[in-house]
Amino acid sequence: MTAPETATRPANPSVAAVVYNPVKVDVDDLRATVADAQQRAGWGETLWFETSVEDPGGEVTKKALEQGAAVVMAAGGDGTVRAVAEQLRGTGVPIALLPSGTGNLLARNLDLTLDDQPGSIEVAFTGKDRSIDLGVFEARMEDGSLSRNAFLVMAGLGLDAQMIVNTNEELKKKVGWLAYVDAIARSLKGGSRLRMRYRLDNEPTRGMAAHTILIGNCGSLPANILLLPEAAVDDGLFDIVALRPKGLFGWFQIWVKIAWENGVLRRTEVGRRLMGTSKEVRALRYMKGRQLVMRFSEPEEYELDGDAFGKATAIRTYIDPGALVVRIPQDEEIDSDQEVGAARHSVDVPQ
């Protein structure tokens, strides 16, 4: 896979930075562990940057780059990782993941260790680099302004985004991802559907109604849910699924497809052979592409990597191939032999 061109910038190869969410991590323990690993690796004094409600990580990552950080460790939840990655896009400076919180979606999809902080910090100083794709999401907001953000794992519209908005944060702190069960129940009460016109790559514009649209750079969610089984983080494409159930039976079909076929059968050779005899489910529609443009009949909530961003009247999302470098263990195998051929696009978000 051909890596993207990176911006020319001064960098001190012996300086790392940590961008951390003080709510998610034990800062004193983290500092002590980083200091030990830094000394063993022969690096200089690590730079430290704290996130805040006003700045989830983007602005402080800019400061880390300005001060010559050769690697930026993201210590926090998925929101911290996404904000750091957004600023590292196209720079060639790697992100190192120090998983924390309930999601850790990118780390899960890269099969990185979730519960070994010293090991993750060691990888930041001694690991190797892997280039992966980033999703870019442009949204025309209710007030007419344009919002542009990156996502690493998944963007969601409709029921998925409403679920994020309706999640009780206090309940999430106590029971983790089980809090989303409560949020789903409250979101389903609305019974609303997305109604849109969309264009995928250079195909004709079409109309569609769906409860949820999910656009994935990766395929796996927590609880071992394989939502997008063909998604690859470095193939220059994103995978899309539209959930279009009609009544309870439609939701049951979706559950069988995702939980049983994707979650169980697909993981064994015998199961994959059995899947060959199963029929496609009309309640699920899968697509692949490099760019998706959508215009909605009314403003719709959207989320990126588990964070709500507000309501949009239209969106354009596309893949930026190989735009992010991730620090991974030296002994980690990179399972990819696909060449990235996706060009970067310049189509305007519809008004």
TrEMBL record:
Keywords assigned by UniProt, alphabetized: Kinase, Transferase
Record bears the keyword RNA-binding: no
Top-level taxon: Bacteria
InterPro entries per the UniProt record, alphabetical: ATP-NAD_kinase_N (IPR017438), Diacylglycerol_kinase_cat_dom (IPR001206), Methylgl_synth (IPR004363), NAD/diacylglycerol_kinase_sf (IPR016064), YegS/DAGK_C (IPR045540)
DAGKc domain location: 11-141
Pfam families for this protein: DAGK_cat (PF00781), YegS_C (PF19279)
One GO molecular-function entry: kinase activity
GO biological process: methylglyoxal biosynthetic process
GO cellular component, one term: cytosol
Name under which the protein is recorded: Diacylglycerol kinase family enzyme
